[in-house]
Specification:
The chain has 147 residues and is mainly β. The chain is built from 2 helices and 15 strands. It has one domain.
Amino acid sequence: MTVTLADLTRRTGLDVLDHLERDAAVPVLGGLQAQGDLIVVPLHVIQHAVVFHGGGPKWADVPAEGVEVLRGAAGGNPHTLVADPGVCQWTPWIRDSMRLALGALRTTGPAYLLHPEHGGSGIAPGTYVIRRQREHGGNRLDRLVAD
């Protein structure tokens, strides 16, 4: 079934900016993908650099209203993980060697990241780590991407 941006906003009550085409289908991708200052990485790609802490992952179902994964700088727009009931679980109990991991998700059906400026991006079934993105700074220092 094709899900549109309008479907996601109607389901969640979250809104997106007017410049986005609400009737556009939201693609569902497996593999590496980015949305603004976040990057979604299949767990198997970085498993060697990831540790679930606190006695192991404490998975929780993603509720109907979604899970706010990250809010932009200075209280900006949120990246929200959404999915149909019973399809996706989330845990923030993870860290990686680069200290960029925000959490992990495992999903048996499509899950979506929704953002007011970027719209929606679909995540295929599997287990993923959601991390902050870094960029190379002009003074040879890496910095977090600001959204």
